[in-house]
Specification:
Order of helices and strands: HEHEEHHEHE
Helix content: 25-40%
Strand content: 15-25%
Radius of gyration: 14 Å
Number of strands: 5
Largest sheet: 3 strands, mixed
Shape: elongated
Strand order of the largest sheet: 1-2-3
Number of helices: 5
Distance between the termini: 24 Å
Structural class: alpha/beta
Length: about 110
């Protein structure tokens, strides 16, 4: 049994939801990560993942330079308390992205 705080990355890499897909992808590449949290006024408002990039590209039409993260991110982001056990935070019946905020869990 492990708690979230034992496995999560304490440094959360974030971008504003108004960042372009291109800018967010650059941040992910530079930090060797597969996702960034979209943050507005110190609150997570969405999560932008490699999966979101694939869906964006598959949709076609707009380029990564003219599409904002908020248009393709997964939202809302559910946060979990870092003292929760991993099995408590994981619910296999849901298709939601979760992030650890280091605070008590909230939506």
């Amino acid at each position: 049994r492990k708690r979230i705080k034992e496995i999560f990355t304490p440094k959360i890499i974030s971008v504003p939801p108004t960042a372009t897909v291109h800018e967010a992808t650059q941040v992910m590449r530079e930090n060797h990560i597969s996702c960034v949290v979209a943050v507005m006024q110190n609150n997570p408002v969405g999560i932008f993942t490699e999966r979101n990039i694939v869906r964006h590209v598959a949709r076609g039409g707009r380029t990564p330079a003219d599409c904002q993260v908020r248009e393709v991110m997964t939202s809302p982001v559910l946060t979990v308390n870092q003292n929760m056990y991993v099995y408590e935070a994981f619910n296999p019946g849901q298709d939601e992205q979760r992030a650890s905020s280091g605070r008590s869990g909230r939506q």
